[in-house]
Every structure is written in C-alpha cells, then in structure tokens.
Structures
1.
Amino acid sequence: MSKFHTDCIEKPVASGLEKLGRMVGRHPWWFLAIPLVCAMALGGGFAFLTKAKANNIEEQFTPVNGPAKADRALVSRYFAIDETSFTPQRLITEGAYAAFIAVHPSGKILSEEALTEVLRIDGVIRNMTVSESGQAFTYRDICAQKNGECTPNAVLKALGNDVRAIGSIAFQFPLWVTATEQTFLGTTLGGVETNGSGIVQSAKAIRVFYFLKESEVERSDRWLREFLKVFTEDKNDFQLQETQVIP
C-alpha cells in the first residue's frame, strides 16, 4: 500500500486554500468590500417584495390541474356569477367580502337601542371614502349588487333606517318568507330564540356582510384594509353602549 499515493485530492485542495489565504491576507479590504457591495445590490430586490407577494392559498398549495378545479370550472360555466344580480348562495369561490358581528349579551340585539348602534356602524362603513391610485371611491362603487343596489342585510333592509319598525316585523327563522322573496337568516342572526311558530323572539347577535366585486381586485383589497382600520384604530368613534362589535 506504500506504493500508492492517496493525497491526490488533498494536495491540490490544500494548495488552493493556501494561495487563497495569502491573497486574503495581502488584500483584506477587497474581500470585505466586495461581499458587502454584492449583498447590498442583491438585497435591493426586497423593495419589490410587496408587489411580488402572493396571498392566494389555493394557487400556492393546490394541484394545478386538480379535479376540484375542473369541477369548479364546469359549475362556473353553467352557473356564472353575475355581479349585478348577486346572491351569496351562487358563490363558487370564497368570495370577496367583509363582515362584522354585533353582539348583545342579554339577547336584545333586535332592540331599538342595539339596532341604532348597528345602523350607525353600517352607515360609517358604507360612507367611508377610500383612495386607490389617486381615485376616491366608496363601498357603493365596488359592491356586488342585486336589483340595482348593494347586496343588503335582510334585517337592516327591513328596518328601512327606522329602528322603530322592528316592533312590527315578525322574522321567521331560519327561513323568512315575505310576499316578494325568501331569505335565509341562519347566517345573519345568532343565538336565536323562537316561539312555537318559528317567529324570532330574541337574538344575541347579528352579522352584517359587505360583498364586493371579485373583478375589482385592487380596489377591493384597498377597501378591505380600510375596513379593518376602522375597527382597530377608529373603533371608539362608534360610541357603543349596548353592543360589542367583532370585525
């Protein structure tokens, strides 16, 4: 075995490292400055990180040609979403929407006092002005519509901005049937107690949805950020006494 040399790799590597060490020792500032300059130049790409950011969980974590996507494409083909005649039941995606829940611990969310606060919050949300690319807009400009108006909350629509009307309205739960339409209240009212005829006697919570046009991606995202800001930074402006609000 003494006739064989096994340092055919070790010697050139050691020689190369020796030369590199001498070069670093003779020119230390070059080896300090060049990595810093390269790191700064490459790190400049982080300035574009926000624009390149992707929050689409479906796109990132589901198969490109998965069977579920093919099935949804088929449903979309025959049951297309019409943003001018919108109903939540026809959604085939998660949809674009915001919502808040107003809670009355004593089960009196349908009282005049509690509904006054709910209408006050709803008014702030619908009237807040948002700017995107120098253009101002409100919820009305980007909302999914039905019969020419933004998709309404059934309870608030029935009030017609007059909380005194609540005493004359008999809500059936979970399906409220009127002369013109049928409305499912299971996603609108919570903690409901009814009488033997299914008429709502009391409720602890009401949820108000704000459905947006999925075609208005940038403006909808900007409006949603402003919506969250209202409930975090400007929440005290609501002056709530009867209800607790959860965005």
Note: Residues 10-26 form the longest helix (17 residues).
2.
Amino acid sequence: GDSIITVQLTEEDKVEDDVVFYLVFTGSTVQHCTSTRKINPGSLETISPGHDCCETVKVALCASREGHPVLVVAEESFQFVQDEAYDAAQFLATYAGNQQALNFTRFLDRSRPPAANVDFLDEKVALAFRHLKLPAEWNVLGPDQSLTENIPRETLMHFAVRLGLLRLAWFLLQQPGGRVALSIHNNEGATPVSLALERGYQKLHQLLTEEEAREPDSWSTLSHTVHSGDYSVKHHRGLDVYMLTAEA
C-alpha cells in the first residue's frame, strides 16, 4: 500500500472537467474506493490502498457525473504481493518478546545495510507494520506482561534503535508497551535510549526522549485516517486523495 498509481486514459475517455474518476479495489474480504486527481486530460493519479492480505484483486475505474449513472470505464486485475518488508513485519510482530528470535535478529547489526538503504528499509517495514492486523492484545514487549522492567531482555524497540529505524521506532512508541520498552535494559545493560545515544542517532534519541517529538516525515505523516466500525476513511494530504475501506 501507499504507492502512487497512475492511470492513463484512452482518447475516448478524456471527458469534461465535471466528470469524477475513482478506482474500486475488490478483494476477498475488503473493498477499497479511492478518489483520483487529474494530472492532465489523459492521466489520473491516486494512492494504492494497504490491503489485508496478499492476493489478486479486481480493480474497476469508475466515472461519476452529477445527474448520470455511475459508469465502469475499465476493469483490470491488481496484485498485492508478499515482499521482504511484509515478511519482516510479520516476523517481528509474531515474535515480540521471544528472546531467541530477537537475539537472532542481532546478526543484522553486523551486516547492516548501507546508510542510503536504511531509510528505504525503515519506510517499508513501518508501512508494513501499519497494514498488519495486530490482535487487540498485541504488545511491543510480547504476550508475557508479568515480567517486570528489572529483568534484562531484548525488545522490539532495541531492534529498531540498533538499526536506526526512525519511523518503526515511532510506530512502536504509539503501541501498548512502547513507552515501557524505553527503560528496559538488555543483557549488555543498554536501554533503547542509551543505545541511540551511543550510536550517535541524534534524531532517534530526540524522538525517544522528547514528549512533544513530531512524527518523522513519511507517507503516514502525509495521511490521516478515521475509523468507524468496519469502515475507515484515509486522506492523503500529499495528493489530496481520499480512500474508503470497507470490510465485507
């Protein structure tokens, strides 16, 4: 989700300004409807929705005009794929609190991607996390909440800070257990906060320590979502498009 989609209209579809185009994505359990913005008479732009699973869905380009019935202009298939970012988010969410799994992720510290790729990795994994259906009882510290803060252990927050993943750290901060994780020491005696300081991640350290710290720039910063029962409406300020998602 959250990629830019461009729609090229054919000559016969280039119509008057009062026609509104939108895309309808129909999946097995969820349907999305996105508005579009006209770039020029022959091109539209919108944002792909974050889907609930990896599958091929049907996409319909619809045209609406006041006083006229809705017209389906074209139909096509669209595939949501399972990529490395999705796998990573699913793994981390599933094994939050599992010390063996979290210690295993530390090998990434020795084979850390180049600085230029860290930002890309951060954006992708954070977006994948946002689109996961996390259980209501999900916690950054894992399912065992009986552990006290004094027990040294690795946390998801340590993982995010060690790699310098600014957006993922922000996402975890907003989840249950996110703030508590900041004061937990690992077996080396490091907290996520001290780890950020030790590694010279100034923006990350500021994010973890300032109460009024702002969310890092990303697609999620450019969007606002309102949930209501089985529906949600998302506004992408960047392109000024809206997305309605409904569970079947």
Note: The chain has two domains: 3-81+222-247, 84-215.
